[in-house]
Write a structure and sequence with these properties.
The chain is an alpha/beta fold. The chain is built from 36 helices and 35 strands. Helix 7 links the parallel strand 8 and strand 9. Helix 29 crosses helix 30 and helix 32 packs across helix 34. It starts with 6 loop residues before the first helix and ends with a helix.
């Protein structure tokens, strides 16, 4: 017989594969569509495990007692969900019915025996409908008669794929049927021979299917399987009885979300994605094998569900047992640290909703909370990185010898390293070191209390041997990779890579996040500046050009023009086209707080002018002076700052104007469009644009309009994090020796002064005993070093302190001389005055004026990234070099260069055109009778309408004499809009 390549053949492979791994065959005839249960398997399970109860209960649906029992079970599943019913059983009258026995504890023969009595059954061609008796789904999975999963299978050899299976679920499987009802199974699987997708709620509109694939070549799909189908891992690894039991116990979850404003509750069912299940299981296995003292870097793309991964990891780390000790946990406490307040609450709530560990979770709000929680037996403590050093400082000595698991969220940030350092210092034991080091780090120390304090300080910097660090990030920097990544040797270099990856490439290809570079549109700004002074002074060209660009971009005309473009685009191309089901939101990214406030007002004024019902929200930190008064975001928005993330989801708010806030760690699927007016590069560019990538069932694209950055810069920023990020080599610690020698050579300090200051500092001497030592060194810096030497010394000092602070946590050895110099420089550097630098561009803004401004939207482009792992260089351990020499040029040349770059309308007769625009055209427009009548007898809006009509007439009359200007007016919408604004501003009063 030839091989069976039909869909039926795939069904046979799946069913027989399950049965080879602990499942049994079920029968469709045993399934009751009325109750959504396999009655034969349920009865067999109860008779085998609870015979006395089985003898009392009646499971015959034709009898009144049996109808009550089965209705009770069916009703409990409907109300609580099958996950909770399996975990906790049900009560029926005086009876407690256990419906599932979970993972047996180590060495417990009784629980192992009960677990073995669970009945895992797989049923082919399951007739699921009471009314439409001929309808059947391909495969149904049951545990003890309770439905767990359904399957629709397709075969690419018959020209059908997983997409067809998804459509079959959406089109043909009615969620009103019990087996397809919400919460009645763990997940519904669409499967072919190459890929897997799943959905937890077929009743959602629309049902949302997510990939459940291993990934291949850092992208979507599955790798070739030399031993079978690409999707065989599903039944050979994921759905084995032991694996599925763990998923039921520790991953699958029904959670409740509450809208804090309306109080409205929504229910969501979680089932882990493959990468989430894979990373947590691998981390747990490694921690169980090696115990505490390990470091792990997890590079998972933004929007990949890191919050749930962290929650699942945290509550399972509690149960990781030391294989060398009889039933002893590896970790005494799990501490989750985040620098995102929104995520802080999200992680806390996600963990707490796992009922079986809810009582063990605490949230450390204040410095005394952590100590109290440990003493009260809280196993998981969640806190923000801002509170963390203060909280851990409160831990009593009796807790310092405990083992900790430290989970660091967003470890790419500068807080990641500081968090690890704070953890080490706070949790390090205060015991004397067995081995001490001399000042040069090479030998035995004397019995010296100051030396003991230095030794303790060095030890406190080190990564703790009694703590494991689990660092999550989408964008690992070089420090992050070297501190937490896995080391390996290649080409004679020690490189570092993540322990686990779920790449941006895979997340995009799996449609779990959207590609923010798919529709990226740069906007080119054009300006024309003129001199307003008689002479032609000289200025520093680089500084002058930077000031000129800032001046024109921050000019009120430019702000108003760009705000208009943003609003017009959003209303016409996003709202009008019903993006995200008509719920789309926009983010405006600005360069500073003043710019954010200006945009907030400009957008609001333009929306009001258009008669739009929509409004903007502004987000920034602190209180600032604007237009003569002190303002903050709450005052401008007219609601509390804490409500911003929630309010932007409600009408009439559609525009979120940001100055740094919400550019990282903000998870809002309704964000569709981003308007960027800020220089971005590197990690910051990736984090900022990635705010758009969160998936939503009705979100199919995103849009970026960028006024400041070019395609090359944005591409370069994303390249490092599109696939796996690898550190090309370790930081060269020997460069600290070189830096120290260079610093010593400047003779700003001597060793006696370093020793004296460090001794006084560590023995808590008064502040006024430290300053005299430092002031002598500052005097030498000022008098003995020329300007270049000052620049070099200060740069090298900062570099030494920064690099040592990082290396001290990971080097396998200590160096007391480095520690002392680091302490000394951290006091000295803030007292060193900055080298005097003459601003040779000063006064240029007073010597120029903006003659014209326009912006031109370029063609939208899809940015393509290299399909390869990216290598980044290690932390540089060198100084900053010399101060650059200014490049002087005359104002007229600077303006010519600037206008050549940014003002590309090449008028043949600039003086005549300028007179036309500023005098002749306004005069002719102003003499129009209809415009005059509207100005005198109507409002500004009607006057503008008549003005624009009059302007059209004037321009049409110029077609013969001023073809160039007429062509610009007719062909260039931006010029037309600018000219209308200009003439209206001149004529309307």
């Amino acid at each position: 017989m030839p091989a069976d390549t039909s869909e039926k053949g795939l069904e046979t492979i799946l069913v027989e594969g399950l049965c080879a791994h602990g499942w049994m065959h079920g029968k469709s005839a045993d399934y009751s569509p009325a109750f959504g249960l396999d009655l034969v398997q349920l009865r067999s399970f109860l008779e085998d495990t609870q015979p006395a109860l089985a003898g009392v209960l009646d499971l015959d649906p034709s009898s009144p007692a049996g109808l009550k029992t089965l209705s009770r079970i069916q009703g409990a599943i409907t109300k609580r969900g099958v996950i909770d019913v399996l975990r906790n059983g049900i009560q029926h009258g005086p009876h407690e019915i256990t419906l599932f026995y979970g993972t047996p504890s180590r060495g417990n023969a009784k629980s192992a025996g009960l677990f073995a009595k669970n009945r895992f059954t797989v049923t082919r061609q399951l007739h699921y409908s009471e009314d439409e008796t001929k309808l059947a789904l391909d495969v149904g999975l049951f545990i003890n008669g309770l439905p767990i999963s359904t399957f629709e299978l397709k075969n690419s050899l018959t020209k059908q794929t997983v997409a067809d299976a998804v459509e079959q679920y959406k089109r043909d499987r009615d969620p009103k049927e019990l087996i397809f009802g919400f919460k009645r199974t763990l997940a519904h699987f669409a499967v072919d021979d190459a890929e897997v997708e799943f959905c937890t709620n077929l009743a959602a509109k629309p049902p949302w299917f997510l990939p459940f694939n291993r990934g291949f070549n850092d992208g979507a799909g599955n790798p070739p399987n030399p031993n079978g189908l690409k999707t065989a891992y599903l039944w050979e690894e994921i759905l084995t009885p032991a694996s599925l039991t763990k998923i039921i116990e520790a991953y699958a979850q029904v959670i409740e979300e509450v809208d804090e404003t309306t109080g409205k509750k929504s229910i969501k069912q979680l089932f882990p994605r493959f990468h989430q299940l894979d990373v947590v299981r691998k981390l747990l296995a490694d921690a169980g094998k090696y115990g505490a003292g390990r470091r792990y870097l997890i590079q998972h793309s933004t929007g990949s569900g890191k919050s749930n991964s962290i929650a699942w990891l945290a509550h399972q780390l509690i149960r990781v047992e030391d294989p060398k000790v009889e039933i002893k946990p590896v970790f005494d406490s799990i501490i989750v640290v985040t620098d995102r307040r929104v995520l802080d609450r999200q992680i806390r709530d996600t963990i707490k909703q796992f009922a079986q560990v809810g009582a063990t979770v605490g949230h450390a709000e204040h410095s005394s909370d952590l100590r109290d929680m440990i003493e009260a037996g809280k196993k998981i403590i969640i806190t923000t990185v801002q509170k963390f050093p203060f909280i851990l400082a409160e831990i009593g000595d009796k807790h310092r010898e405990r083992n900790f698991a430290i989970i660091i969220d967003e470890a790419h940030s500068s807080q990641g390293g500081r968090t690890a350092s704070a953890v080490s210092k706070a949790l390090a034991a205060k015991k004397a070191l067995a081995t001490k080091v001399d000042d040069d780090g090479s030998g035995e120390g004397d019995d010296d209390p100051v030396q003991d304090l230095i030794n303790e300080a060095m030890e406190a910097r080190r990564m703790l041997p009694n703590a494991s660090y689990f660092a999550f990030t989408a964008t690992p920097k070089n420090k992050t990779l070297e501190m937490f990544g896995d080391a390996y040797v290649e080409d004679g270099k020690t490189k570092h890579k993540p322990f686990h990856t779920y790449t941006m490439k895979q997340a995009i290809e799996e449609r779990f996040i959207l590609d923010v570079l798919k529709c990226y549109t740069p906007v080119q700004s054009y300006y024309r500046l003129v001199k307003t002074v008689a002479g032609d002074p000289e200025f520093d060209t680089k500084r002058a050009t930077k000031k000129l660009r800032a001046y024109v971009e921050g000019n009120q005309t430019a702000i108003a023009k760009k705000a208009q473009i943003m609003v017009d685009h959003f209303l016409e191309q996003v709202i009008a086209l019903q993006k995200v089901g008509g719920e789309a939101r926009a983010m405006i990214v600005t360069g500073n707080i003043m710019r954010a406030i200006e945009y907030f007002y400009a957008i609001g004024e333009y929306l009001e002018k258009l008669g739009s019902q929509y409004k903007a929200i502004v987000a920034f930190s602190g209180e600032h002076e604007y237009a003569g008064e002190m303002v903050n975001e709450a005052k401008l928005n007219r609601f509390p700052s804490a409500d911003i993330a929630e309010r932007i989801r409600r009408e009439p708010y559609r525009f979120l104007v940001c100055a740094d806030k919400f550019q990282t760690g903000y998870d809002e699927p309704l964000l569709h469009s981003m308007y960027v007016d800020k220089k971005l590069s590197g990690v910051k560019a990736v984090q900022t644009l990635s705010r758009l990538n969160r998936a939503h069932p009705k979100k199919h694209d995103v849009f970026v309009l960028d006024f400041q950055n070019d395609v090359e810069t944005i591409c370069k920023s994303f390249e490092s994090f599109y696939r796996t990020t690898v550190l090309s080599d370790e930081t060269d610690a020997n460069k600290l020796h070189d830096l120290k020698a260079t610093l010593d050579g400047h003779q700003v300090y001597d060793q006696d002064e370093i020793d004296a200051l460090v001794t006084k500092y560590l023995t808590e001497a008064p502040r006024d005993e430290l300053d005299p030592i430092l002031d002598v060194c500052v005097a030498r810096y000022n008098t003995d070093l020329d300007e270049d030497a000052q620049v070099e010394f200060k740069g090298d000092a900062k570099s030494f302190a920064r690099t040592y602070d990082f290396l001290a946590s990971i080097l396998p050895y200590s160096n007391a001389a480095w520690e002392k110099l680091s302490i000394f420089l951290n006091f000295l550097v803030p007292k060193l005055p900055a080298p005097k630098e003459d601003d040779l561009s000063k006064g240029i803004l007073e010597a120029i004026d903006m003659d014209s401004y326009r912006v031109e939207k370029q063609a939208a482009v899809r940015l393509l990234l290299p399909d390869a792992d990216a290598e980044i260089d290690p932390v540089p351990a060198s100084g900053v070099g010399r101060k650059p020499e200014p490049e002087l040029d005359r104002l007229s040349n600077i303006l010519k260069t600037f206008n050549d770059l940014f003002g590309n309308i090449a008028w043949t007769d600039e003086d005549r055109i300028r007179k036309l625009i500023t005098k002749d055209i306004p005069e002719k427009v102003n003499s129009d009778p209809a415009y005059q009548a509207a100005k005198n007898n109507s409002d500004k809006q009607n006057a503008r309408i008549e003005h624009d009509k009059a302007l059209e007439k004037v321009i049409l009359n110029l077609i013969a004499d001023d073809t160039e200007l007429f062509k610009q007016f007719m062909d260039n919408p931006e010029f037309k809009r600018w000219l209308a604004e200009t003439t209206f501003g001149i004529t309307y009063s």
